[in-house]
Amino acid sequence: MGREEQIINERIKKIAEMRKTKINPYPYSYERTHTAAKIGEEFSNLKNEEKSKETVKIAGRIMVVRDIGKIVFAQIQESSGKIQVVLQEGETPEKELEKFKKYLDSGDFVGIEGQPVRTKRGELSVMAKKVEVLTKSLLPLPEKFSGLQDKEERYRKRYLDLLINPEVKKVFEKREKIIDEIRLFLKTRGFNEVDTPYLQTVYGGASARPFITHLNALNIPLFLAISPELYLKRLIVGGYDRVFTIARNFRNEGIDKSHNPEFSMMEIYQAYADYETMMKLTEDLFDHVARKVNGSTKIKIGEKEVDFKKPWARMTMLEAIKKYAKIDANKMSWEELEKFMKKNNVEEKGSSWGLRVQAIFEHFCEKELIQPTFITDHPIETTPLCKSHRSGDERLIERFEPFCMGMELANAYSELNDPVQQRRLLEEQQGLLSNGNEEASPFDEDFVNAIEVGMPPTGGLGIGIDRMVILLTEQESIRDVILFPLMKPEGNKTKTEENNEKEEKVNEQNSKKPKKEVLRKK
Length: 522
Known about the structure:
disordered C terminus
């Protein structure tokens, strides 16, 4: 019999003994009067070995127990923090001390009634007068330094990760503050928060392969949303001037340090605006949220310091290629680009001039963009939803993506509102989809009809919330900022996945050393 199985059997026996003596191991509620934080505030003036006359009732999980005979020390943890409980002969009634020693272990939830006291060593504690079992746990808690260090196990069992590693909870508390500040920032600027459907009959708004499901009631296929974009534009048509949503997106794609198939995206649309307006809004937003949440626009990722202070640097995609790939793609034909790509082992994304420009940018430039930088004026092939560039260069569109630490943070356009051009571009996308391009967009007749009704000049912006949180909390992976990242069930891994996990562990060890690229593009 293994050690864990032995502990489970011992605890099952304790549960049976409690029930025989009319002690409910799983009562319905407990009325506590104080949290650990509240005790710290109200009784901070107690001197060493001084005990308050006031009675308090606390509740929480037992994390550590030290039984030294006539006195027992227990550390209790709850949402506001930790506090020590003292059970001592002559102070704690014999029946209550016996109950604690006989039935309670680390991991159990307990209610303690007693007086706040400052111990001889100066630790603020509660001297127990009454003990109530609130939940008897079966499984033992892992040891902090040896029981839950494997990252895969931490992601898979986030409940244990939160219990054993208190710094993890602080990341998600900061995530909540970031989202709160985003909402406040936008609402004070006149934006209305709206909801868009997650189940859609026609998906669109991004280049991604969707998840497909089935609605039994109507016997029709449905798609999980890959983007809220097309619905938000319908609202601009319908008379909203400024709208945003913080939504879940679902994309049937790979999993790595910056990708999770289910992720949080904020999309913003503003009538009578363009991509210049959206650039200003983006840097204003990051500057504001960084100051409010961190007290500074500066963060540190590995050995690199990043500053979100506005204004951010700007480069066109062609300028970035000229700087980092050392070629003038603007003057090169698609055949010349093809020759350059083969020579430098650049992965082909398509045979057009624009798609080759994009492939060269991704290969040479993204990893160099450490400080927040807007990359503007992308090739027209990269999206069917954006206006052509006002300069008259028909190869380009008014699109930007901000990058930081080699990672794309957002995507924005001067939104296309020409219904004839929009219909033609989406028909082309439907043709690509029909010919096997799984990331092309299907034709959405209702969306095109909305554009035909008339949409004013509009600026649109999508920001990856999870990636913003990665940076502002100084984490390494998207799985560090999603409470429950998608994980394959235990015991169901292929050999390839096992090798990938080994490789990731090596990469995590190497990431502790200074290196050129910490995060990868979405």
